[in-house]
Amino acid sequence: MAAMKILTGTGLFLAFCALGLLAMAICTDYWYETDARRHRERCKNYANKRNDPGYIYISNHNLPLQMPPRGLARKGGGPDAGALARAKRHFPAAASSMESHCNRQFNSTVSGLWRKYVFDCEDHIYSVLIILRCTPVKYHYSSSILPRNLPINITKTIRQDEWHALHLRRMTAGFVGMAVSIILFGWIIGVLGCCQQHDLMQYVAGLLFLMGGTCCIISLCTCVAGINFELSRYPRNMYGLPEDISHGYGWSMFCAWGGLGLTLLAGFLCTLAPSLSTPARTATHKPRQENGTV
């Protein structure tokens, strides 16, 4: 009986902590972060080339690795000529990709379920972040403004991807709300079961904790899938991130994963506790045998 009370109390305490972590994750906006300071520094160095009158800049990407053989130079044929031409075309592509990334303005961002913050850092002071703008996360469809020179098939692909990303965001917010509601309802039932010493209510509370953990798993998986989908959208030059921009999950996401673990552990303890209870034995009195009666 004492072991059952210890397991039930521990499970309810873990469920209460899980509710706190999930509530903190929902109310904060540090689910996903991007840091563009290194990219901005690289683009700044790329743009600050020497432009004084006596200096002529020659990019290394426009120079061949070696001089072509004389025979190839005269004839312009052979198997090595095609490889050399492909190599010469490849190196200017790297420079043009660098210029295209620097033409797009990237800023450090922090996003959550409800808001997205765009930060800007002061020059040479990376510890100070200035909020440029704060935009709400949309859970209704609104078409974005696209360039007019895009082909029709690319435009249709972008519209379809917007719908898919919207569904993933809705699933993330909806299932995490369901998880918190189910866990809270199970915690109330578990507390009432402890007060009334009712084993069935404690078992139902454990099942509700496991159900809430399942909803939380679906929510976090759809959140991760939505972030990966946003990074892999087509065309890449509009939605992709350069390699020198660091990005990852924030502490709000880790709070949600911690709440998930505590919820599953609480459900396991609360469903295990009723099996340790010893059923009360009822004494049965046999009727006394009287003389002449059986």
TrEMBL record:
Question: Gene3D superfamilies attached here?
Answer: 1.20.140.150
Main location (coarse class): membrane
What is the topology of this protein in the membrane according to its UniProt annotation?
Answer: Multi-pass membrane protein
Q: Which InterPro entries match?
A: PMP22/EMP/MP20/Claudin, T178A/B
Q: Which domain of life is it from?
A: Eukaryota
Q: Which GO terms describe its cellular component?
A: membrane
Question: For this UniProt entry, which segments traverse the membrane?
Answer: 175-195, 207-229, 249-272
User: Does the keyword Transferase feature in the UniProt annotation?
Assistant: no
Alphabetized UniProt keyword annotations? Membrane, Signal, Transmembrane, Transmembrane helix
What does the UniProt entry say about where the protein is found? Membrane
User: Member of which family?
Assistant: Belongs to the TMEM178 family.
Protein name in the entry: Uncharacterized protein
Per the UniProt record, the lineage of the source organism begins with: Eukaryota, Metazoa, Chordata, Craniata, Vertebrata
